[in-house]
Amino acid sequence: MSNGTSKIPVDAAQRRSAKPIVCYEVDSLPSYDKAVYEKAKISMEKTSEVIVPPRDGATFHVPAGHFFRIVSVEGPQVGDLNLWNANDLSERFYSGKTRQLHSSHITTGDRLWSSHPNLRPMATITENTLDWYGWDEDGAGVHDVIGTRCDPYTNYLLKEVDYNNCCHSNLIRAVADNQHISYDEAETHVHDVMNVFMCTGFTKDTHQYFMKASPVRPGDFIEFFAEIDLLGALSACPGGDCGSSHSNDATPCYPLLVEIYKPAVGTLENWQKPSRNEYSGKHISNK
């Protein structure tokens, strides 16, 4: 797009006609073996649950080899999800790499990948009751890994108002309480999120990130399988269904439910915990 200051070259059309190439060939990634997870789900039992209050956050633990579900329980509500290796918080969910390896919006069979230098699956999406939504006429989909999280810094930049129930702050409080650390230290662990149930895309004219009312309804859920021991933190976004606004106390908001499930003994004999990335870590130039 010309902004009126640059000269359009004579070969502009030719330059624009270059064919797009998907950045990563992912055929070599471990395939999603649905049968392995479905067998483990048949006899799984719920072991615990956590309620995430509206406009607040909460943490939960999921042992490797267990499932967890994020469930809509009272009304349409989106959530901002962070994940860490429960035994090493330096290994965290890497939304950007997840986006590159899968898509801008993720669904059943996709994995949530961890940060460098580990870069391995942290969780696998095993069921999504909003699979039916797909892509709408606006180009929007559900469960994005393109947005960051609403935060008090951006809110103040745009509105010059302190608001402490943005998802960023909600996650900070939840992590600080779980780890018994200060808010300042907790903030170093909070990272870009998976926007659970959020319906988003980019406008067709200006390519700006947009949100619209989530199609989620009570009873809908997204289910994950923990590939490693996980600490999770979830914020029930102050935007509610994100169909009007966010970062305020006026928008209707609802709680979210996190359920943890344990498969029966012997149902995961064909599953293996993913190892850390095997790159040598030398970073030596090949020149």
Main attributes of the structure:
single chain, 287 residues, alpha+beta, seven-stranded antiparallel β-sheet, six-stranded antiparallel β-sheet, 6 helices, 13 strands, 16% helix, globular
Q: Give the CA-CA distance, first to last residue.
A: 37 Å
Number of domains: 1
User: Could you estimate the helical fraction of the residues in percent?
Assistant: 10-25%
Reading the helices and strands in chain order gives: HHEEEEEHEEEHHHEEEEE
Basic shape: globular
- Give me the count of strands: 13
Number of helices: 6
Helix and strand content put the structural class at alpha+beta
Radius of gyration equals 20 Å
Q: Could you describe the largest sheet, including whether it forms a barrel? A: 7 strands, antiparallel
Assembly level = single chain
The residue-averaged pLDDT reads 96
Strand content bin: 25-35%
Poorly predicted segments: none
Descriptive account of the structure:
The protein is an alpha+beta fold and 287 residues long. It has one domain. Helices cover 16% and strands 28% of the residues. It contains six helices and 13 strands. It has helices at 12-16, 34-42, 95-101, 152-159, 167-179, 183-187, and strands spanning 45-52, 57-62, 67-72, 79-85, 88-92, 111-113, 121-128, 141-144, 194-202, 209-212, 221-226, 230-236, 256-262. Strands 2, 4, 5, 8, 9, 10 and 12 form a seven-stranded antiparallel β-sheet that branches. A six-stranded antiparallel β-sheet has the order 1-13-3-11-7-6. The chain is globular. 38% of the residues are buried.
